[in-house]
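Worked example 3 (structure in, sequence out).
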C-alpha cells in the first residue's frame, strides 16, 4: 500500500508542471485593484506601483525598518505580514476589504520565486521550493470558530481538506488550488460544537487522489 501511494505521488509530480507567477498579469492587477487607491503615491513608505517603486519601497524605521518585499523570503516580507491576519504593526491591509486566500498565496509564491518583473527561465530561478508535501499544522489551535491550515507544496495542484468530528463523521470540506511553497487556508467550524476534530489533506487530479497529511484541531466556544 505504501509503495502504491509513493508511486501515485511520483506519477502526480510528473504530470503537473510548476507554473511561475507572472507579475504583470497576476500580481499587478491585485495591487492596482486593492492597494493603489491608498498607496500608489508611496504613502506610509509603501508604493504599490510601478514595479521599480514597489520593489524599492521601504517601511519606516518605527515599523518594520526594511523593504516591504524581500525576494525569496515571503515569510520575512512586511507586505505579506500586512495582508495576513494580525500583522506586527497596525491593522491588516488593504483597508476596506481583505485579499482572498488565493491572492495572498499568489503574492507569497511570487515573492518566493524572487519577486521578478519578468518570469525567469529555469536556469535563472533560485528558490527554496520544498521537494515534497509537508503539513505544517494549523493555527490558532485551540480556535473559535476559524483556524488556518498550513502546508507546503512542491507543485501547483488541486487539493481537498476534509474535517471530521471525533465520531468520524465529515463536518466540513474545502477544495482549492495550492501554489508552490507555503499555503494557508482557513477552515470555519461556526456551526459545530466545541470538541476535538481531525482533518486530512489530499492532493487530487482527474484520475486519483493521494493523502499528504492529517492533523488534530480543537474547537472551544
Amino acid at each position: 500500500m505504501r509503495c502504491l501511494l509513493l508511486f501515485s505521488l511520483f506519477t502526480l509530480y510528473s504530470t503537473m508542471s510548476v507554473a511561475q507567477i507572472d507579475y504583470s498579469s497576476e500580481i499587478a492587477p491585485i495591487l492596482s485593484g486593492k492597494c493603489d487607491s491608498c498607496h500608489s503615491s508611496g504613502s506610509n513608505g509603501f508604493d504599490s506601483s510601478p514595479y521599480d517603486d514597489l520593489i524599492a519601497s521601504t517601511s519606516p524605521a518605527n515599523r518594520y525598518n526594511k523593504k516591504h518585499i524581500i525576494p525569496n523570503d515571503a515569510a520575512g516580507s512586511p507586505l505579506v505580514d500586512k495582508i495576513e491576519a494580525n500583522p506586527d504593526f497596525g491593522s491588516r491591509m488593504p483597508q476596506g476589504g481583505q485579499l482572498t486566500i488565493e491572492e495572498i498565496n499568489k503574492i507569497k509564491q511570487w515573492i518566493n520565486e524572487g519577486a521578478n518583473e519578468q518570469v525567469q527561465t529555469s536556469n535563472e530561478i533560485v528558490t527554496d521550493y520544498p521537494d515534497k508535501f509537508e503539513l505544517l499544522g494549523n493555527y490558532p489551535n485551540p480556535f473559535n470558530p476559524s483556524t488556518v491550515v498550513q502546508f507546503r507544496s512542491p507543485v501547483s495542484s488541486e487539493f481537498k481538506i476534509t474535517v471530521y468530528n471525533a465520531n468520524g463523521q465529515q463536518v466540513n470540506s474545502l477544495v482549492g488550488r495550492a501554489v508552490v511553497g507555503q499555503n494557508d487556508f482557513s477552515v470555519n467550524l461556526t456551526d459545530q460544537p466545541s470538541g476535538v476534530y481531525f482533518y486530512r489533506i489530499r492532493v487530487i487530479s482527474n484520475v486519483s487522489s493521494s493523502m499528504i497529511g492529517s492533523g488534530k484541531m480543537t474547537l472551544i466556544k
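Notes: The longest helix spans residues 2-15. The chain has two domains: 23-124, 129-219.
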